[in-house]
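> call design_seq(struct)
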């Protein structure tokens, strides 16, 4: 880009930023009780919505507006106050508070294959592996002692909650995240054929502009999130807690490729 082009782009960014500020000011005046939060669709469906009634009951003076989106929030451009994001915590020009970690483990319906569930990790060679964009099976294979490549065949979903729904319907084995499993294990909708877990490289963060650090609307929501997460940790049954039992390394290879592995 030329110097002239860069100066023009800089002025455009400044104008858009001023426009965003004006929109926020008008919106704030129209409904000063509204709190606009952007959340990933999977987290909204599987974690936030089942719990949000408790926040609404405790804070009837706050009008919570939840928008489901996976796009990174631009607080200068987008008309939102805060966002819950899943990543590495690097969100420039914003405050990012760590909410919780996550782990992966396989799950399936107890009705899968007529109840003939995989008894050992290598048995996955005979089952359909459900896949989700940007979430990979290969690291879990390695943790389980399987020298298998990343699957390139089989159903692919762009939302992690859809993968869990497909698993619940008996369509294959899914790689679940602890944050999204909800009550499906407790209620028997899904089961864990193995207890091997893999820590996720990503974490959940509450992200917001620094100007809202002491907002009377954001502060109660922030505290409610931390309280809910702490309560969930206390109530997690021991068999579902994040631990990986020691296993001997193995170079097990499937004698026949798993549907979804090649």
């Amino acid at each position: 880009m030329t110097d002239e082009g860069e100066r023009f782009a800089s002025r455009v960014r400044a104008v858009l930023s001023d426009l965003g500020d004006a929109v926020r000011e008008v919106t704030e005046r129209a409904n000063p009780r509204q709190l606009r939060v952007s959340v990933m669709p999977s987290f909204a469906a599987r974690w936030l919505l089942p719990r949000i009634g408790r926040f609404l009951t405790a804070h009837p003076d706050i009008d919570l507006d939840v928008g489901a989106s996976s796009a990174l929030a631009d607080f200068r451009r987008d008309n939102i106050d805060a966002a819950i994001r899943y990543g590495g915590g690097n969100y420039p020009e914003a405050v990012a508070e760590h909410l919780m970690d996550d782990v992966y483990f396989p799950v399936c319906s107890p009705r899968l294959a007529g109840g003939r569930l995989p008894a050992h990790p290598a048995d996955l060679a005979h089952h359909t592996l459900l896949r989700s964009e940007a979430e990979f099976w290969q690291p879990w294979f390695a943790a389980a002692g399987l020298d298998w490549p990343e699957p390139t065949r089989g159903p692919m979903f762009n939302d992690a909650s859809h993968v869990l729904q497909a698993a619940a319907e008996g369509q294959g084995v899914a790689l679940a995240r602890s944050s999204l499993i909800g009550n499906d294990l407790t209620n028997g909708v899904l089961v864990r054929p193995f207890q091997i877990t893999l820590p996720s490289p990503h974490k959940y963060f509450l992200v917001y502009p620094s100007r809202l650090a002491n907002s009377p609307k954001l502060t109660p929501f922030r505290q409610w999130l931390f309280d809910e997460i702490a309560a969930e940790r206390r109530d997690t049954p021991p068999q579902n807690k994040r631990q990986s039992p020691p296993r001997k390394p193995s170079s097990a290879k499937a004698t026949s490729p798993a549907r979804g592995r090649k």
